[in-house]
Design goal:
13 helices; about 300 residues; eight-stranded parallel barrel
Amino acid sequence: MLGPVILAASRSDKMRRFISAAPGTKQVVDRFIAGETVDQVVPIVEDAADRGLEVTLDVVGEDITTPAQAEAARDAYLELIERLKVLDLGPRAEMSVKLSMFGQALENGHELALANVRPVVEAAAAIGTTVTLDAEDHTTLDSMFAIHEELRKDFPQTGCVIQSYLFRTEDDARRLAEAGSRVRIVKGAYKEPASVAYQDKAEIDKAYVRITRILMEGEGYPMIGSHDPRLIAIAQELGRQAGRKLDEYEFQMLYGIRSDEHVRLAAEGHRMRVYTAYGTDWYGYFMRRLAEKPANLLFFGRSILTKG
């Protein structure tokens, strides 16, 4: 399977340099990354709003090695929030954050990440929006969920992400599916061992359906992160069975993937949010997008061969 190989390459400095220098890389990166600066991403938020879509914005960046880098990540989000405030775009755009960017893996990382993310959550609330904590590899999740619980004491709208390929996730979903919660369900995009995660796609999909049912039958607000037409249709049916109105859950898809489907779901009355990443440190995010779907890798290979 190519997925694990690509995920391993996402941690290789040699592969980073090779792919960054490849002639066709920019063409493909531009498909998944909305830009490098706030100035470049704001028009995309405005365009999405005009088309009846909402967005969640991710300032990409990984492998934080110093507290100063973690503070810079915090400041990048605060800059974004200030721009959204000035343009009155807060209600249309939330933020997604990876706690690794806020120093989670450093010494005293749990406390450092909480201290750095709190002002971002506070600033987001002040402009009428919120923050969702992205899920990373399984070793980080206990810390992420603890930070999520702490933030929700003052900002109950703070969301989090769960991953269907992990064995633990059905229990996490039951715990999280409470009144006022916001939970995004995705399949998962990190290389995880067989001791903690399903390795077979069919098993991951089955778990996704079971977890979606738990969320739909719970009292929280499910966010269905998938591009799979079959899983989208199943989620719609589970929502109907649970008696949910169309505005009592939402779909989320990545910027640059199945854009027509974004518009179709919004036209049907669903809340449709586009996960929109931007920034200069795009490599790790980009490689996970390739690993998730072989068609993305094929598109990248063709671009290199044709030199963009």
